Structure formats: C-alpha cells, structure tokens
Amino acid sequence: MDRRQFLRLAGGTTLLTAAGVGCGSGPDEKERDPGAAEGRGRRTLRIAQSAHFVPAFDIWFDDYARRWGEEHDVVVEVDHVRITDLLTQADAQAAAQRGHDMSAFHSAGAAVFEDEVIDLRDIVTDLESKVGRLIPAVERNIRNHRTGKYFAFSDCWAAQLTNYRIDLWKAIDAVPDTWDDVLRAAPRLKATGTPLGVGLSPGLDSGHHAFGLLAAYGASVQDEEGNVVLNRPGTIDAVKTATEVFRKGMTEEVFTWDDAAADNRFLASGKGSFILDPLGTLRGIELQEPQLAETIGLRPPPAGSAGRLFPHSVHTYVIWKFSQNQELAKQFLVDLTLGYKDAVLQSQFYNLPSFPGSVTDLPALLAADPTAKPVGKYGILAEAATWSVNIGHPGDTNAAVTEVFNQFLVANMFVAAARGEMTAEASVAAAEAQIKAIFEKWRGRGKI
After folding, report:
1. Which H or E run includes 106?
2. 3-157+313-368 classified as CATH 3.40.50.300
3. In sequence order, which residues have a C-beta less than 8 Å from that of residue 108 and are 6 or more positions away?
4. Contact status, residue 161 vs residue 278, Cβ threshold 8 Å
5. How far is CA 325 from the centre of its chain?
6. What sign does the CA torsion over 204, 208, 211, 217 have?
7. Distance between alpha carbon 247 and the CA centroid of its chain, in Å?
8. Longest Cα pair distance anywhere in the chain, in angstroms?
9. Is 135 helix (H, G, I), strand (E, B) or coil?
10. Which of 192, 349, 367, 432 has the most beta carbons within 10 angstroms of its beta carbon?
11. Contact criterion met (CB below 8 Å) for 48 and 86
12. Structure confidence at residue 40 (pLDDT)
C-alpha cells in the first residue's frame, strides 16, 4: 500500500487533521470554511505554500495577497506550510476532497496529482501571448506531453549555485569549476578543517545534488521518451566521483543533513568551504555575518565529463478540482505573474521568473544589487538558464520521476556507495530495479 492509498483509507478525521499541518494553519477548518466567508458576502481564496528561504518574501507575499483580495472583494488566506509537509498535506486534501483552493510544490510533486487538479493551459497560453514564452525547462515540470494537460502553473524557479569560500580556495590555488577540480581540492580543504558539503541524505537538497551529478556525467533516470535508462556507464562514473569526493573531502555529518537548511548552517558556521544551493544561503549569511558573506563566491555548478547541467528548483501551483474558486485562483496567478518584478526583488533574486518576459530588465537588476560585494556578484544568475534543467531531464518531470525523487531513490543510491555498503555498480543496479517498478505503475495508468 502506498502513502496515498493509506491516507484514503485512514478516515476523514485523520485527513482533515493532517490538512492543517504547518506554521500558519491558523483557526480550525470550521472557522475557515470558505462557505462561512461567502455567507458574509465575501469569497475566500485559500493558498498553501512553504515558508520562503528568504523570510522577507513571505511578509511581502502575504501583504500582496491581502491587497489583491481587497481589490477583488475577496479574503485571501495564505498558509505557510513546512516544505517537508507539502506532499503530506496535498495527499490528505486530495483524499478528503477538501482544503486549499491551490497548493504549491517545489521541483517534484505536482505531477502525481494530475487527475486531482484542473488543466491550466488557458492561463499559460494567455500569459505567453502577453509576455512571451515560458522557459522550456520549466514547462517540462508542469505539462504532461503524453496527455497534453498543464497540471500545474509555475511562477518562478531557483537556480542551483556553487557557494564557495573564495579565500580558502585561493589559498590552495584552485577554483571549483569542474568535479575534477573539486576532487583534487577535497583532501587539502578537509585537512585545513574546512571540508566540502554536498548533501548525502534522504532529502530535497540531496535529491538535487544526486540528479545534478547524473546530468553532469551524461546520465539520467529516464530518456526523453520516459524509458528507464539509469544503469549506464555515466551513472556509475557519477556515483564513483561522489564517493571519492565524500571520502577525501567531507565528513559523516552530510549523511544526517535534513531539509531545514543544514547546508546553510554548515557554510554560515565558517567551517564549510563549498556547498551547492540556491541564493537563500548567501542572503541569510549577508544578514547575520556580513564579513563572512564577502568571502563567499558564486559559480555555476561544477561541470562533469558531459558538461555543465544541474536541476533547478521549480516552484509550481496546482488548482484542485474540488476548489469552489477555480477562476479566482487562476486570476490570482495571472496577476501575480504579470507584476512579477516585485516578487523577484522581494525574494532578493531567489525567485527567477518562469516567464522571462515578465521581468525584461532582470540582467540590469542583478548587476545593480545594492548588497552585492563585490559589485555585480549576482550577475551570474542572468545566465543560469543555460545550465539549468528539470528533474526529469531529458524528459518531463512526470509522475514516475516525481515519485522516484520524493522517495529519494537516487540519493540513496549515492549514499549506499559512499558509505561502502555497496559497490557503485551494485547500488546503481539495485536503484534501477526499484525505479522500473515505479515507471511500470505510472505507465499502466497512462501518465507516461
């Protein structure tokens, strides 16, 4: 029995209790019933999304939602759910057929709910006619090319970056441009008490790292047609590289990192010399340790034998079929996107627009960031789309890839080899067997 089947059998009371999980859940379901607000003459639009990695953005977003609601005579309620609870909450609400009007996901999540949500092709098409094309790699996260359905909508994405201590790397006359560079520098940095930090634990960050290593070595879970192709030489090369980087340059703590910003704390402590993460880490350090922030440089993720590719983190929304405010939710997303420059600025460039034409002066804004030391430090983000791919690359981020990612099967494959529990070859073969079963299930359901 999978998680969703269990939740469906668990009973309505349990499901509705789970639906309220998160830091901002507020009053109980009865008090927040949209029907009650309608009875008072105003509709209620309920939105679930995670707390942002740049806290100031949540303050801005909640105020934007309030102002938008006032303009449309609507009460807009935003619940900031813990990122680790997003899928659990969505499972519960889909099973109960009650909850938020729209829910947000990061990178992989929305595809498994395709049958539970409405098609958003109309607003994607409308926005493309007004501001230009959606980024192709982002579109692969929200559209099922097999069914033709836009099961989700994306307002933004976050580029994965190399965050490294310029002073520490300069001291050993090195830069982390390739994984070979990282491997050569690893023992020297570890010996000085400033190890590398690449997450190797069941978690979202580690999942991105694992999929990024695959892409850099020309490997992937699936091909463009949705066939499982994991057990190939490139995958084994990626696993062996990660194993060597861990053994020569990291400590055991990377096996226990959670998704509550463990790698951020590692770099902010001053002992970390290298992590892979979006911009939120550095923004936090700028506030708490500005002198340390000046020593941290940004580069694209390291290149492997097949080039420089790394999966980005994509923010997506779904609108549930059970929502009584579907058109209202659509309008909220359209209006948010048309004025997305404010969102980009308030997120301190963590949020990059999924529709680039909505923020046409982004390169100039990046170059002029007032907190950047040295000046122009964040200009690198203007080119981030050139190395960023979706989790399902070179195919869609379909339901099967989503389940593989969220069960951490690829991350666990790297962990097994790095800890010496299995050889690289054995860990890859074992992971592929598990992954094939998941793909067969979703293929049988007509989703790939």
Report:
1. strand 102-106
2. no
3. 141, 207, 391, 397, 401, 402, 405, 406
4. yes
5. 26
6. negative
7. 27
8. 68
9. coil
10. 349
11. yes
12. 53
What is d(CA 310, CA 215) in angstroms, rounded to the nearest whole number? 6
Cα distance between residue 219 and residue 209, in whole Å: 13
**Angle at which helices 409-418 and 233-249 cross, to 10°:** 60
d(CA 362, CA 368): 10
> What's the CATH superfamily of 161-311+390-444?
Periplasmic binding protein-like II (3.40.190.10)
Q: Say how many CA atoms lie within 13 Å of 237 toward its Cβ.
A: 16
- The CA distance from 96 to 317, in Å, is 19
DSSP H or E run through 283: helix 280-288
Contact 114, 447 (CB under 8 A): yes
Beta strands 274-277 and 196-197: pairing type?
parallel
Within 8 A by CB and 6+ apart from 245, the residues are: 179, 182, 183, 186, 196, 198
What tokens appear for 251 in the block? Answer: 């400590």
Within 8 A by CB and 6+ apart from 437, the residues are: none
Task: Name the pairing type of β-strands 74-81 and 43-50.
Answer: parallel
pLDDT (0 to 100) of residue 83: 86
Sign of CA dihedral 65, 69, 70, 72: positive
What distance in Å separates the CA atoms of residue 366 and residue 380, rounded to the nearest whole number? 8
Strands (E), 26-120: 43-50, 74-81, 102-106
Q: For 155-222, where are the alpha helices, taking DSSP H only?
A: 166-171, 179-191, 204-216
For tokens 């990192």, the residue is 257
Q: Which residues contact 305 (CB under 8 A, 6 or more apart)?
A: 216, 217, 218, 234, 237
Identity of the amino acid at 78: V
Under-50 pLDDT residues of the chain = 1-39
Integer-rounded Cα Rg, in Å, for the chain is 22
pTM equals 0.89
365-371-372 Cα angle (round to 5): 75
Strand-pair category, 43-50 with 102-106: parallel
Q: What residue segments make up the domains of the chain, in order of their start?
A: 3-157+313-368, 161-311+390-444
Q: How far apart are CA 351 and CA 362, in angstroms?
A: 11
CB 317 within 8 A of CB 306: no
Which are the contacts of 173, defined by CB distance < 8 A and separation ≥ 6? none
Paired tokens of 253: 């703590």
